[in-house]
Design brief:
3-stranded antiparallel beta sheet; globular; two-stranded antiparallel sheet
């Protein structure tokens, strides 16, 4: 799953970038730092069990702030899905994107309050069925 906010990359360029970033993250050891430079981006990532969450940002972003955002995002996914796993993300990508959209607007973090984020998600699910 990927979401872009500022770059206007073609599908092929996105696929190549994502492949490079994933390969680099998978090749790093647990003892290495959770962020590194790649092309013009800073890549910040965190591993939770078998899931990797990766964020590419510009030089002005705070790495620790993004790590905290990733942690908050995973906590919200855990609360919604009950121990989020790969199947949850694969089976309900629209819901994962919806949750992310509650936290971000145009690539900027606007809310990290779990209750504020999950309330509209729960209302949406009630309305759907």
């Amino acid at each position: 799953m990927a979401k872009y906010f500022t770059e206007t990359l073609t599908t092929e360029e996105r696929r190549a970038l994502e492949g490079e970033v994933v390969r680099k993250c998978l090749s790093r050891t647990d003892k290495q730092c959770s962020f590194y430079d790649h092309r013009q981006y800073k890549i910040i990532y965190k591993r939770y069990a078998s899931l990797f969450f990766m964020v590419g940002v510009d030089d002005e972003e705070n790495e620790l702030g993004i790590l905290e955002f990733i942690h908050c995002f995973v906590e919200i996914l855990d609360k919604h899905f009950g121990q989020v796993c790969e199947l949850d993300i694969m089976n309900e990508p629209e819901m994962v994107h919806y949750i992310m959209d509650e936290m971000l607007i145009n690539g900027c973090i606007v809310d990290t309050n779990k209750t504020n984020i999950l309330e509209p998600v729960q209302l949406l699910e009630q309305a759907m069925g």
